[in-house]
Amino acid sequence: MSFAKKIYPLAVLFALTITCQSEWANWRGPNMDGSSSAKNVPISFTQEKNVRWSIPMPGSAASTPIISNGKVFVTSTDPKKEELLALAYDLKSGKQLWSHVVGTGLNQDDRSNYAGASPVSDGKHVLFFYGTGDMAVYNHEGKLQWKKNIQDEYGKFYFLWTFSTSPILHDGKIILQVLQRDTPVHKAHQGGGKHDSFILALSLSDGKKIYKTSRADEARSESKEAFSTPVLYDFEGKTQLLVTGGDCITGHDPDTGKELWRWGTWNPNKIGHWRLVPSPVAGKGIALACAPKGAPVYAVKLGKSGNLDNSSISWQSENGSNVASDVPTPLFYEGLFYVAHNGKKRSHTLSCVEPVSGKVLWSEDLGVDGKIEASPTAADGKIYIVTHYGEVVVVASGKTFKKLHHTSMGPGRNGRVRSS
């Protein structure tokens, strides 16, 4: 399997337009829901048209570039030296500002590599994290602030697949989830003992532990593994940390890690191979949790505490419908949810759903060849979807489906683009 080896022009051009009005300082943007309030975002573009700049990357990575204070930060790899890289570019020109080696090693399987997590920035510092456990914080000029390895300090990761989750920032804290198996799965980890899944908060300034909270689940085997990223959501004047994985969704106090509520399971039969990839997304007091492998999407009503029963489910999609997602995280934009799905007979759909009622306003095949694993992104009334092959589709947001643009920006059929 091959990977995309460049930042695609759309990703950079889109970043140029949104940075004028807001930063895109983490994987899912300023609202942590895939949306931006930017205006004058382009509709029409090709590899030659409306491209500000394009640069080759040292190697493959599945991370999404972030934008902060006129700089683009992204992870990459050096496949020959098997190094994990932290990179910075000038947003206007594409000039590389600095590059650092953070760790070594590429992957533990051929489906992805260790450079899958997106950076995150507070406007002065930028944090990089890799599936090896390597974590480093630099200032925007590229000076190392501190560096550590999470596995060395908190135990080996127990994952069948190459681990990835993106860290987030909240009030000077780095928050990282590690939702993993409780027993070793690879020979290299044998004898490591039993491990819990956990939520970890570190100080951005020096990397010291603020809290480490166990995050229990009743899942089996691979279903304990999650590759999602936690998100923050403000509800009724309080900020909650939403976490999906291990066959359940939980809400936490981001300042302490304390669990406030949980709902689950979407896996009552305890199927053992339901690893989770999509992150949660919230809007209008509803948190969406996507069960794996084309199973339903569940809409959880926020506001209650403790162990929630099914009375807290506002709606769930029909089993086998297009309102499902095995990999892409849904988008919340201008009061509506948008869910990308790879269905049967090579269909690749986008569905628009009303958050409270679950009414499907439209569900349309996008007419693309490549699988969708990047998450949809929106600004200026437009939704952008990227496929494995580097195809980019632009769809109008709102209650009526309208396809605005379809072009190829990537490597074609030998690509595997996952960057949003």
Summarize the structure.
By secondary structure, the protein is mainly beta. It has helices spanning about 10-20, 150-155, and strands at about 65-70, 70-80, 85-90, 95-105, 120, 125-130, 135-140, 145-150, 170, 175-180, 200-205, 210-215, 230-235, 240-245, 250, 260-265, 280-285, 285-290, 295-300, 305, 315, 330-335, 335-340, 350-355, 360-365, 375-380, 380-385, 390-395, 405-410.
What is the strand and helix layout of this fold?
Layout: H1 9-19, E1 66-68, E2 71-78, E3 83-90, E4 96-104, E5 120-121, E6 125-129, E7 134-139, E8 144-149, H2 150-154, E9 168-170, E10 173-178, E11 198-203, E12 209-214, E13 231-235, E14 238-245, E15 248-252, E16 259-263, E17 281-283, E18 286-290, E19 297-301, E20 306-307, E21 313-316, E22 331-333, E23 336-342, E24 348-353, E25 360-365, E26 377-379, E27 382-386, E28 391-396, E29 403-408
Parallel strand pairs: 16-20
Antiparallel strand pairs: 1-2, 2-3, 3-4, 5-6, 6-7, 7-8, 9-10, 10-11, 11-12, 13-14, 14-15, 15-16, 17-18, 18-19, 19-21, 22-23, 23-24, 24-25, 26-27, 27-28, 28-29
